[in-house]
Amino acid sequence: MKLQHNLGGLEGLDPVNVETKVFVEPWEKRIFGIHTAMMALSNHLDTSLPDYVIDQVPTTFKSFWTWGHLRMGAEAMHPFEYFRLRYYEKWLGGISGFFVEEGYIPQAELDTRTAEFLEDSEKAEAPLPSGGDPAIDAQVLKYLQAGDSPLRPLSAPAKFKVGDQVRVKDVSPAAHSRLPGNLKGRVAEVVRVYEGAFTYFFPTEDGLGTPMPVYSLAFKPEDLWDQSLIDANSVYYNDIFEVYLEAA
Q1: What pLDDT shows up at residue 120?
Q2: Total-model pTM
Q3: CATH entry, 3-149, from 2.40.30.10, 3.10.20.310, 1.10.472.20, 1.20.1530.20
Q4: Contact 187, 248 (CB under 8 A)
Q5: Which end of the chain lies in a sparser environment, N or C, as judged by fewer CB atoms within 10 Å?
């Protein structure tokens, strides 16, 4: 994970946002809905579990979009911008950029429309277009109910077992990673080996993609942070893909 997704006990990042509402403004619900619909109509669902006949859904959205893509967009942001923007503003920027990259809307048109909404607040509050296709609605509803499972059959035995001491590899940073940077080089104990193998949404430069075991690891907090930041009786747990681990 890049800096903005891997704070790892860093200090001096005030102010801390203690907002408890899931959605603060109405438009945030809309961007959440857009992201959900994009996942429900993603072209990778033809090979996912459970089965979706996505090629028969009459949608013009033909791209590959998952939670991983949303995270990758956030990690690609400049850290200062990441900390400056609100939560759903990050989503809005990532999704807008994706639509431009995929050719759904030209950057010039997006800029023009954005300027129009900023100048005329009433236009921004206009009701959404009516219509829609029941088949698309049904697919989104099915996805919300059934999801998209990363679990796959285990093709080879897990390398480690409960009680083993393992070290987190110090792999080079990738464009997108699921390895917390503050755990690199640290030793932990395997406390659980999850049943089956887990895939990631798409291959990453540091080894994810192929289905593999995932382990729950127990770290000693004093191995990760300064003594002044920890509770002496605490244990830190993290679930880590096998590709990131080696025997200690």
Answers
A1: 87
A2: 0.87
A3: 1.10.472.20
A4: yes
A5: C
CATH number of 152-247: 2.30.30.50
Answer for the pair 209, 178: CB distance below 8 angstroms, yes or no: no
| d(C-alpha 46, C-alpha 52), whole Å | 6
**What are 161-201's pLDDT values in tens digits?**
999 999 999 988 777 889 988 899 999 999 999 999 999 99
Spatial contact of 70 and 99, defined as CB atoms under 8 Å apart: no
Helix axes 26-40, 87-101, angle to 10 degrees: 40
Contact 182, 9 (CB under 8 A): yes
Per-residue three-class SS string for the chain: CCHHHCCCCCCCCCCCCCCCCCCCCHHHHHHHHHHHHHHHCCHHHHHCECCCCHHHCCCCCCCCCCHHHHHHHHHCCCHHHHHHCCHHHHHHHHHHHHHHHCCCCCHHHHHHHHHHHHHCHHHHCCCCCCCCCHHHHHHHHHHHHHCCECEECCCCCCCCCCCCEEEECCCCCCCCCCCCHHHCCCEEEEEEECCCEECCCCCCCCCCCCCECEEEEEECHHHCCCHHHCCCCCCEEEEEEHHHEEEC
